[in-house]
């Protein structure tokens, strides 16, 4: 992989993809945009991968160095060896990857449970994270809307397309068809990876609600929430208002995954926050 200090001017239309060989397993990383631009780290949620950002990346990479990582056991990254799926372990892997890429001071963006991973990264490595953006990341378990259980015996894995679509449907607004690429990716994961990642995300949230973790961090924060979310109660986005200076925005008509449902609006919000943050690091709540 080309390092940013050796080739800072990169075609924003060209994705650089590589596998990092880490102690606990191979990690898939891709980069877009000029390496000398402000860095955005994009982290997907459970049962997803870096491909969930595909619609957003072209809108971000003209002005930013966009880094996407498949968390262990997801997408094209190997399952972790010698460790599990705890959020602090996922954060440690992200920190190691950023060190390998010689990147710090990122605006770390997490979708859904990816928001817990980037929060834990900021807790562990505040030197690496300048600001945080959480997209439809539930603030506490009291806001959780339990999805239909994936009633499949592990011995019968992988499930059919229809079973996956039924399971994943709540991750989008009513009537939105789950993209085939995401169906294929979820089917490619092991049953253990999916269930473990989800269980550990809940465990992290049960330890302490996210707004209190973020208040202690003192990092600039933007929260984007689709007002049609069927995984987390949309009104719970207001819970983040306790974080000093937090910018909280509800996206009309978007469900749990606005990065695919409303990529243009999501990118506009994210870029405005990142640009203001990089120059002034001042924020005003909007909810």
Write a structural description.
With 287 residues, this protein is an alpha/beta fold. The chain has a single domain (16-279), classed as 3-Layer(aba) Sandwich (Rossmann fold), CATH 3.40.50. It has helices at residues 57-60, 87-100, 114-124, 161-168, 180-188, 191-207, 210-217, 258-261, 263-279, and strands at residues 16-22, 25-32, 39-43, 65-69, 106-111, 129-135, 221-226, 247-251. Strands 1-2-4-3-5-6-7-8 form an eight-stranded mixed beta sheet, with helices on both faces. Helix 2 (87-100) packs across helix 3 (114-124), helix 3 (114-124) packs parallel to helix 7 (210-217) and helix 4 (161-168) packs across helix 5 (180-188). The chain is globular, with a radius of gyration of 18 Å. Residues 1-12 and 279-287 have low confidence and may be disordered.
Question: What can be said about this structure in brief?
Answer:
The protein is of the alpha/beta class and 287 residues long. It has helices at 57-60, 87-100, 114-124, 161-168, 180-188, 191-207, 210-217, 258-261, 263-279; strands spanning 16-22, 25-32, 39-43, 65-69, 106-111, 129-135, 221-226, 247-251. An eight-stranded mixed sheet has the order 1-2-4-3-5-6-7-8, with helices on both faces.
Please give the structural blueprint:
Blueprint: E1 16-22, E2 25-32, E3 39-43, H1 57-60, E4 65-69, H2 87-100, E5 106-111, H3 114-124, E6 129-135, H4 161-168, H5 180-188, H6 191-207, H7 210-217, E7 221-226, E8 247-251, H8 258-261, H9 263-279
Parallel strand pairs: 3-4, 3-5, 5-6, 6-7, 7-8
Antiparallel strand pairs: 1-2, 2-4
Helix pairs in contact: 2-3, 3-7, 4-5
